[in-house]
User: What shape does this take?
Amino acid sequence: MRNEDGAPVRLEDYRQTDFAIRHVDMTIRLFEGHADITTRMDLSRRDGADVTAPLMLDGDELVLTGLSLGDEPLDAARFDAGPDGLTIRDLPATGEFRLTIGTRVVPETNTKLMGLYRSNGIWCTQCEAEGFRRITYFLDRPDVLATYRVRLEADRNAAPVLLANGNPVEGGPLPGASEGGDPADALRHFAVWDDPFPKPSYLFAIVAGRLDSLHNSYTTASGRDVSLTIYTEPGLAERAGYAMDALKRSMRWDERRFGREYDLDVFNIVAISDFNMGAMENKGLNVFNHKYVLLDPDTATDADYAGVETVIAHEYFHNWTGNRITCRDWFQLCLKEGLTVYRDQEFSSDERSRPVKRIASVHGLKANQFPEDQGPLQHPVRPVAYREINNFYTATIYDKGAELVRMIATILGQDAFRKGMDLYFERHDGDAATVEDFIACFEDASGADLTQFFLWYRQAGTPQLEVRQIFDETSGRLTLELRQSLQAGAAGTGTLPMHIPVRFGLVGRNGGDLAPALHSADTRVEADVIHLTQEQATIVFEGLDERPYLSILRDFSAPVQLAYKESSQDRLALARLDPNPFGRWRALTDMVGDALAAAVRSGGAGTPDERMLDAMVEAAQDEALEPALRAQMASLPGEAEITRLVADNVDTDRVHDVRVEMLAALGHRGKAAFERLRAALDTQEAFSPSADSAGRRALRNTLLAPLSAALGTSELAQEAFAASRNMSDRLAALTVLAHQFPEDAATRQALAAFYDRFEEDPLVLDKWFMLQASAPHAGTLARVEALVAHPKFRLANPNRARAVLAGVAGLNPYVFHQADGAGYRWMAGMLAELDALNPQTAARMATAFRSWRSMEPGRRAAAQEALRQLQARPGLSRDLKDILDRTLA
Ligand code: B3K
Ligand code: ZN
Assistant: This one.
């Protein structure tokens, strides 16, 4: 059962349950206004468990309607039932026994969207992490694995589709009065589903409602026929075609790359409009935020297509990494999440472009995980304590977790990595495993000792990697000095040196990688990887005619903060010459980021380095590179990114001004080239969601911002908006209008036209809300007040709430960090309102405050004041309180 409110759950306190649950048989009767649930479970004491221990089942806002042991109702003296738990005493010391528990819940009023709730009339569930206890009393933890058989009953008209985990067994009308049934059942029907794979309760799911569907089928490598169905709200199934395609490609890829096949007769996906996160990997019945299923060129951007592909793959891959092998406890969350992110990143790399995908992942890691790792919400990839587990579905668990898996692959090499994965699947299929179990598989498969590597799971924070190079012309020797350090942070974990794999290249003056002889090294150097395991290492290469360009930390081979005094000359050379495409992007981006941060710190843009701007213009035009990569190299970081780079004493007004100036300077410098490129890329080709087509659109649309900034008028964006024939182009143009030319009549007209056209399309309308909330202008806060009063705004819908709240707090530092503190106060007020409806989403949105200490003193004080006032409000959820307490600590 949950600890007393406020007391954290600790890894060191882990112990097995006294009871095991072998099988669960549920009947769920859905009615308008309530649902009745009967849960029959077969339990026994575990070997060696205390024979007198009571059974303590978890609950959350539950009402008990019946309780029997075997066939007899249980005497009231033998149990205590409350909304948060059910304790039963004097249960049999040996052998299996059966408990039958009745509960009643009200899905219609469940705005937390955890447990059983209704989304647009559709009954659906979300159980991870602790939602099953909102449906029935249970040992609601991931190390209690049971098989489930579920019977659903509902009105045939309200819920013609009845879904649960596993395979369908039977279904049909309930007997009406004439057949001897209950007259009230005349219009009702039932379905029975059976899931043969033992699973933890967090993977339980049901869905019932009026749904449209898109069908397909798949034959696995060993010849099993699987029926695939994607269910949507009425009228939207045709938008699920790309998701279906992505699903089939994911299934094939997992067979080829990891030898993993699907294991049930059916695989169902349901797209829901009210959902707290992206999607959920329930066994055989994935439930998705419809944002990650529904697409067509007219309503979805290329980024949406890529997101759908990723999330479909991610949830599918969980079938093995998460479901067949699950986590022993929630401290092991990275075991399924980090690993599955790694797998979905690899999938996207293989399906699309490896360097482009890597750049996008690294960009995301730095934008989301680095600030978390360096601020008050810091925690290790394997945490040791939590107050609210839902607050640990973080960038650290997911994205840094994926980086750790990638480092294992780098350290062991692809073959040994695959052997370790094979061993993991073989050894732990059907288990609730730990990170130690996972690492042991790689050690056993390869013979490597990963003891030091394990520190990456225990120590929080971003290590700093200091690099120095010395070239001696007379001897032709190049000396590399590497040094690592880790600051103790909020998590208070260790700071020991870790195993950092540093991929590198030595690039010749005319391009191409050199392969000089290694003269000496006090650490292991293997091909293009330096294994830094001590605090510092010195590596000397010899036989060089001239100083090469050092391409360091290629492919971002470790999640570290690079501290390297690299000359502009080297960066510019690498941006042009590095044979490693990631290295080209890295050199140029670091140069641009440093220039912007320096300008902010010194109080003005000054004249931006023309060679740097030229390098961006040149990259945009470089036919040897794929267009998506050219777009990445020619883009300026956003204001949020620059804010992060400045790191302390930040004045976000300056951030804004510096970026605006730099954008215009880039536009001036590249004007002719950018115009030519935009014309050349305007091929009028029929829309294709392929990565190539998307890359060309990305490049063309990226150039619109600097060109418009240089022109100083909205004409180009107006033309682009009018000519747009897909959502990527339309949204790019509208963003330039709304962000650069907020006062123009043309902008107002374009926003109104967009609204009129897509008013009835919630996913597009989210974009309309977010676009305005993220506009960096003095008038935005007033506009945002109007947006939340708009008839189409619904705080209870997480996508809509996120569009506005994260639009301001996540994407718009200029407004969120407004010097007068109005942005902070507005956000705090919204969080209080949202918390009363949906604590999980409120807590997630509140993490936007995590970097408040990096602001200049005036803003810092205003943020602290807003946070304190919010923290002092009575009745806050544990979710939000946990985030606020840690943020202010
Ligand atoms: N496992 C879910 C996330 C559940 C979040 C619970 N607060 C989706 C995913 O990572 O695939
Ligand atoms: Zn996941």
User: Anything to note?
Assistant: The pocket of (3S)-3,7-diaminoheptanoic acid (ligand 1) is lined by residues 128-129, 277, 279-281, 314-315, 318, 337, 390, 393 (CB under 6 Å). The chain is about 40% helix and 20% strand. The first strand starts at residue 9 and ends at 10.
